[in-house]
Amino acid sequence: PSRTAILKIRNEVNVRVRVDHPNIARLIEIYEDEKQLALVLEYCPGGDLFSHLCDRGRFPEQTARVIVQQMLAVLCYLHAHDVVHRDLRLEKWVLATQHDGSGFPFLAGPVKLVDLGNATVWSNKSKKMDVACGALAYASPDMLVGRYTQACDLWSLGVIAYRLLSGHSPFHGRQQALVSQILSGAYTTNTFGWKGVSKEARDFVERLMDVDPVRRMTVNEALNHVWIASLESKNDVPLSLDFLTAVEKFARCSKLRRANLTMMAYSVTSEAAGGLDKLFFAFCKSPKATLGLDEFISAMKTQFPFLDIGQVVRLFQAMDSSCENEISYNDFLAVMLKPQLEKEEFLLLHTLRKWDADHSGFISLDDLRVLLGDRYSNDALEDMMHDCDINGDGHIDFDEFIEAVRNEDDFESDSRDGYADFLASPAAGRRVAIDKELKW
Fold first, then answer.
1. Largest Cα span, the chain
2. pTM of the full predicted structure?
3. In this structure, which of 28, 175, 308, 381 has its CB flanked by the most CB atoms within 10 Å?
4. Which of 1-5, 300-304, 387-391, 398-402 has the lowest mean pLDDT?
5. Which fold is adopted by the domain 3-229?
């Protein structure tokens, strides 16, 4: 690939290792040879929204509303993590699950954002972005002028909503004509294609497609707009004793086993996750899509009043893979899918390769330092190696690894009277493993 293409893919990797949301397609693997560099994302067989729009002409308003609500949730998450997408369009969104080809199946499964190639981390809010990118038909006036903020994403979402509701683009013509129309906001919601669309939907689109980025709705304002806010929430799923049991079992596992489960969970697709995203968001209300300690305590004490605060805190610490006092969606999947993950032979082998940072065929103490050294002392890592190295040869081979990550009695001594210390950052380990595979 060209250097430009490589830099774009590397940029996407840099962004993807920061994000973890049910409506963003997951990065499974990276492959490179002499001729190509490929990102392997989770399989989403339902097709992209642009193709569906071409096939069907326009979407029913209720369907469009549910789709846009999911897109807003992703935007809210990205912006909360200082990520600006800069290239939102229908082609970038796919249906996570297959459908039968009849009617509008979109209410049954989620839509997912699949491309982050033009996304950027915008942490210095005092300096506006100036690089125009993405498709012109979706570009905001402020991006075309060359001084823009994250508000550019809201304009693009407005164009998406416009097309879903009306079946056509708000702007037409060749490049210069498009630029002129976009800069002046020369579009209308009174054409024949808008017949039957509610005034709330029209207002929503018009407030997103405001030429002035200061007047344009923010992502939070869009989420609170009556057209979106009036949708019934389907995330009010009560926590059951099964959830508590799963968390307790996870918390009693060794550090290595918990870290391995969390790493394996990055390969979980929407189909495998089932409805766990709804369960996660039943008690995670943060725009960052992470669960803080206070929120976790409140939810757990409400559902399980017999738990004392100390127990709840220890459960939280066991789930918190980043050690940043927050539980991510991936942390949640690792807990809830533990039995299924540990039965996946291929996934276990795949994850073992991640642990084997130097590709020696086994896990050494140095490998543990690479993946876990930022969270554990050298003594703690040596203890971990000692616990797993059954034959005492100084490293963890395949059989020892399988024994360590599958043995139900593989509990640490400090777990027997409570719960283990929180695990190290597998997200950082995942990043190291990815970087080692990329030969820039």
1. 77
2. 0.81
3. 381
4. 1-5
5. Transferase(Phosphotransferase); domain 1 (1.10.510)
